[in-house]
């Protein structure tokens, strides 16, 4: 017998507005922006950008509460529910691109299992363009109105999924975990081949959100040189939203050749998604684009350091996985860390870079250290990333073998 709904883990802000309003994140496609609908009440995550930076000073807005919780289907009942002809609103735990790709793949499988299900996502944030790839999904970037909420039969809080609380320090595979939790099979994968007899378009995306996962500049420079010698059209995509981008770009040095294009960053995640889908082959760090490639089955190589390639790629074999094999006195790759950690006295790094056991690094850093971040992606990478420099000839050879099939 189904259990009664219970409160969501995350709290939401209830607010009212006397004036019409519109809101959309700058890195999300404009067609996904949201507009008020004259409802008496609206809901947004209490920690969202909308709540923290806009509502407090917006004229005509009245905050009713910062402690509202939706009534959600208990985790134990997810696999027991019949979602046929039902409207289901999913609360998105975070907008990390890799996690949201896994959720999007799960939604595809859910729609296959319940063909008449109607899906909505709330708090999709910067990842809204990823969910937009799913037909007939309703996307609420940062807020939902009380009128819109009434249209849904069920609300499900995906943060109740096991492992989500630790996802920043121990990555999981959301697609497979959610399919298992809902008792449905993932969709079959189609193998995408390299095109024959044409000049290949190769995308290189070396920067991740953490220095633990960003590729060494020397590796990127050597791979780029090898690809231009193979007469490929190479696009190197950096990340202008990261404060270390200029330092990383300088560390790459000059990249010779008319067939090389350097993109400092895309305006929206939608532009990045389109780019990944258009490439014939990818060379990517453990980052959002590596996961986005699953949506198109774009061939390529994923180069991994601290995180486990098998866990992150799961059943998807479109990317050949290269795993750093660093081993030191305090850790071995992959250690599982997705972000840097901090000692109680404020030293920032990982087990290998600080020469400490994981027990001495209990927390994630509370403050950023721009100078350290720049050093970690240029001159002083963490050991498992530095180890990739000795792998350059072997990595170039693997890529050459892949491209020889075109």
UniProtKB/TrEMBL annotation:
> What Pfam families does this protein map onto?
Glyco_transf_9
Keywords for this protein: Glycosyltransferase, Transferase
**Entries under Gene3D superfamilies matching the protein:** Glycogen Phosphorylase B
Whether Repressor counts among this entry's keywords is no
Task: Identify the InterPro entries for this entry.
Answer: Glyco_trans_9 (IPR002201), LPS_LOS_Heptosyltrfase (IPR051199)
Key word Transit peptide present: no
What is the name of this protein? Lipopolysaccharide heptosyltransferase family protein
- Which organism is this entry from? Thalassospira indica
